[in-house]
């Protein structure tokens, strides 16, 4: 009996330790350490669409910089402020050119972590910059939150030369909703930090409703026909099943539902994005095992945001 009691006690201690570890993964609280939760690794994907094959890179950063300008200048806040989340994304050609010549799309977003009842984390979109190249010409759009006006300020430019004559500015009010907001390029990060992703993988079910903010509006909509022609889109992100690959790996498929439109995200058991499919656009992304050193130049080149 003494051995049985010792065994039960040991199992109880181990179970408690596993529970504590699991709870920290699935229920992020206000006391959670963001530096632990945020994966800062550079991710590189094989990107294929109707125009060919390209390379897609992304990186999530945690910084005390208060805006995109300070972040690009590597200027940290002098006040004791909470860190913000920066998501950088680059789509480039697979050619041996300089970073400026081979970049096709580039975006950088800033989101401010917040909390609902001290238990659920949300990433509040605050600022974004998007660049895209059509026929050798650069088009840019930038978003900046105006809290008093409850709107985003949208500035667009459609020319490299003398952009001051080509700039357009307008305010777009927030939709009236109780849902949280998330930039399109930060969806995987939003779902991971709010605890939904890991919990849904554990339960093999679940859904999350929110509002997508298209940081590339309006040029992203011109490049991709299946994207809603609006800055804000109501969306649902839900678990859609577990897949066993030919190699024996496990993938968890999630669907981003945008009305009748569907976009598929595949994550591994560690809640890391490994595949992305937008069938209507002919887009597929598959993560590379190793990031090429030659690709880091494009991701770290800030001149495209000027």
Query: What's the mean pLDDT score?
Result: 82
Radius of gyration from the alpha-carbon trace, in angstroms: 21 Å
Distance, first to last CA: 73 Å
The proportion of residues forming helix, as a percent range, comes to: 10-25%
Number of DSSP helices?
A: 8
Question: What is the strand content?
Answer: 35-45%
Please identify the structural class as seen in this structure: alpha+beta
Strand count: 15
Order of helices and strands: HHEEHEHEEEEEEHHEHEEEEEH
Strand order of the largest sheet: 8-7-6-5-4-3-2-1-15-14-13-12-11-10-9
- Uncertain ranges: 1-27
Tally of structural domains: 2
Describe the main β-sheet briefly. Answer: 15 strands, mixed
> What's the overall geometry?
globular
What does this structure look like?
The protein is α+β, with helices and mostly antiparallel strands. The chain has 8 helices and 15 strands. The chain has 2 domains: 1-30; 32-305, no CATH class. The chain has helices spanning 2-26, 34-37, 68-72, 99-102, 187-193, 196-203, 219-223, 296-300, and strands at residues 43-49, 52-63, 84-93, 103-116, 120-134, 137-146, 151-157, 168-173, 180-183, 207-213, 232-244, 250-258, 261-267, 273-278, 283-287. Strands 8-7-6-5-4-3-2-1-15-14-13-12-11-10-9 form a 15-stranded mixed sheet.
